[in-house]
Amino acid sequence: MREGLPDRYFYNKSEAIRVGNLLKGLLTKRHSTDKNYQKVKNVWQYVANGDVYQGTEVTGLRNGTLYVNVESTTMLHHLTNFEKLTMITRINELVGAGCIRNIRFWTGNTRDDKRR
């Protein structure tokens, strides 16, 4: 049955692969070279100060939407309902008007070990 089929169909059949890891390899990372993304990432610690900064990580910027990983659902709820509009305004003041139109918060792992 393997005859005539490329080896890629049989790659890593014995091990489970996380969907997130699979998608990371397929999607291109355009935001790493984007100047606005770098500016927003640098300004994030001033916008989200203290515990919020420690529990969040900016992961991407696409079409005016900033993507942020959050460590807990409680923090996600608070940021989405109470802080989101203030954060958008502060980022646009520091980086440039109209840079950010929306922020999407996701629960996920943050790399807080790099910050400490």
Describe it.
With about 120 residues, the chain is of the alpha+beta class. The chain contains five helices and three strands. It has one domain (about 30-115): GMP Synthetase, Chain A, domain 3, CATH 3.30.300. Strands 1-2-3 form a three-stranded mixed sheet. Helix 2 (about 35-45) packs across helix 4. It starts with 18 loop residues before the first helix and ends with a helix.
Q: What is the architecture at the second tier of CATH?
A: 2-Layer Sandwich
Briefly, what CATH class?
Alpha Beta
Order of helices and strands: HHHEEHEH
Number of domains: 1
Total helical elements: 5
Number of strands: 3
Question: Could you tell me the radius of gyration in angstroms?
Answer: 18 Å
Helix content: 40-55%
* Category by helix and strand content: alpha+beta
| Poorly predicted runs of 5 or more residues | none
> Looking at CATH, which topology would you report?
GMP Synthetase, Chain A, domain 3
Distance between the termini: 53 Å
Shape: elongated
The description of the largest β-sheet is: 3 strands, mixed
User: What is the CATH superfamily classification?
Assistant: DnaA, N-terminal domain
Strand fraction band? Answer: 15-25%
Strand order of the largest sheet: 1-2-3
Mean pLDDT: 81
